[in-house]
Amino acid sequence: MMLEKPKPYGMLTDYITGNEVPNIGAEENRQQVERFLIEKKGYDRGDIEVGADLRFSLHDEEVHSNVDLVVSVSGRRFMVLRCVPGSFVSRQRETLAAARLLDDYQVPFSVVTDGKDATLLDTITGEVLGQDMNAIPSKEEAVQEMKEMALQPFPQEKLERERIIFRSYDEMNINVQRKLKH
Prior knowledge:
The protein has 182 residues and is of the alpha+beta class. It has one domain: tt1808, chain A (Alpha-Beta Complex), CATH 3.90.1570. Helices cover 27% and strands 28% of the residues. The chain has a six-stranded mixed sheet, sandwiched between helices. A two-stranded antiparallel sheet has the order 1-2. α2 packs across α4. The protein is globular and about 40 Å long.
């Protein structure tokens, strides 16, 4: 029996952090999105968390994952972005769950993007608000929205179900950094 060697992968320099990252999965897409947020939408590097930790307990299991990009304005998380290599629709539910579980309130907006196109979602309702990269709010728009927005916690009675949904989708993610063997 022959042992299968892991596929070799190249490295990229992350646009925001400057760290070397493996070029696997949707990494090139994420780099495009990082540039877009800074160069076209006016965010600063300090406004964007790369690979934000998402941890929770589900029954006796500790779930540890991360969110591709999280944009904060006025000291609060405003938008979760999931960078994907393929179908947006299949990733919308996972992205909404991440935005609902990441903090003690629902991060108001969720985005699924491949770096060229995007779907903007209202995290609370799940409603599609826009279908292209221009739908992603600029920093100026985000600051204004946060002034007028009441941040809402996710309903306690739905929390376990949302955790199950996130974990189920997350377990299917194969080409992600945290699953690499070092």
